[in-house]
Amino acid sequence: MADNESKKFWDDKHLEGDELSKMSQHSVFAEQSLTYFPYRAKVIDLGCGTGADSLFFLHHGCEVLATDYSQPALKELEARAKGNLNLAVKQLDLSETFPFADQAADVIYSHLSLHYFDGATTQQIFDEIHRVLKPNGVVAVLLNSFTDEEYGHGEQIEDGYFNIPDKGPKRYFSTATLKPFIKRFETIVLDYKGSDPRRNHKEDLVRFIGKKAA
């Protein structure tokens, strides 16, 4: 999809009534990830959508910078946060260099937002995550897996990366194909036990929780 088409797709998707309803509650992955966060962590949430997980982290004492490509989604999050001073929001295109200082965050978190890119861009994203994390910082990401029913649909762009009709490019990981992208991190969790309410909580998504070396 062209940039304008992609932006409109996400603006519309985030603000659909059904989507808002499904994402009004924080995710299981947010709960699982929080157990690895340092106390009062500074968290950057990549691709936060309307921010259910960002709000969950706020309510557990974190300072959160919530980022998304969709400005309407961020406005919805700000309305829900009701002026919480520990929340900041920023519109962010994940395919570009992150506008954050080195070692700026204790945690970088992503719930189903990092599987839309070609291999070179995906590697750039994980390199940027490594740069922005503090030593001993935690990265927690949930990703689509090759067991997804859409896997193999549409035109194949790269291995595991397809142009899905009406949805655009999408990457499907296995734990093995993820490993080259995360080699700079110490692995804490890497499995297929991730779930999402939009998928009826079926456990087949790739979970990765890792740590930047001290």
From TrEMBL:
MF (Gene Ontology): methyltransferase activity
**InterPro entries per UniProt:** Diverse_substrate_MTase (IPR051052), Methyltransf_25 (IPR041698), SAM-dependent_MTases_sf (IPR029063)
What are the entry keywords? Methyltransferase, Transferase
Q: Where is the Methyltransferase domain?
A: 43-137
What is a biological process (GO) this protein takes part in? methylation
Q: What is this protein called?
A: Methyltransferase domain-containing protein
